[in-house]
């Protein structure tokens, strides 16, 4: 089943991929690898989840932020490949580096990032099996609650 079909079955639509917040590219391709720059939970061009998880946001809200951010990652991949219908070139998500803006004493960053990992699994199935690291920060760019940096591999064109 295609990624485009899975998205439709889940009632998900890839958003317009956000523009970089600085002077860099959103996606860089090297060999069969895609390096997706830090994505944040922008929805319709606005930061949808701000502040620190454990103070301003609950774990569930943090998971929703991670989920929205994961959709932006998929949107960046789709744009790079030429559209959602070209996502069959995506071989797998290789690594996810998750950053969570966290209140002092908050230690469930992995639980927050499960929102992203679970979305990848729902949409990509076996292609979503990835290594992951979780990091805690007192603040992220643009006051984002979550940021994801992703490496994916591609099948030959």
Question: Would you kindly provide a written description of the structure presented here, covering whatever features stand out?
Answer:
This protein is α+β, with helices and mostly antiparallel strands and 157 residues long. It has one domain (3-9, 16-154): RutC-like (60s Ribosomal Protein L30, Chain: A), CATH 3.30.1330.40. The protein is built from 3 helices and 7 strands; from the N terminus they run αββββαβαββ. It has helices at 3-9, 59-81, 109-124, and strands spanning 27-30, 33-39, 42-43, 46-47, 90-101, 131-137, 146-154. The strands form 2 sheets. A 5-stranded mixed beta sheet has the order 1-2-7-5-6. Strands 3-4 form a two-stranded antiparallel ribbon. A hairpin with a 2-residue loop joins strand 1 (27-30) and strand 2. Helix 2 (59-81) packs across helix 3.
- The number of helical runs is 3
Residue stretches low in confidence (pLDDT < 50, at least 5 long) are: none
| Separation of the first and last Cα atoms | 19 Å
CATH fold-type name: 60s Ribosomal Protein L30, Chain: A
CATH-defined architecture: 2-Layer Sandwich
The radius of gyration over CA amounts to 15 Å
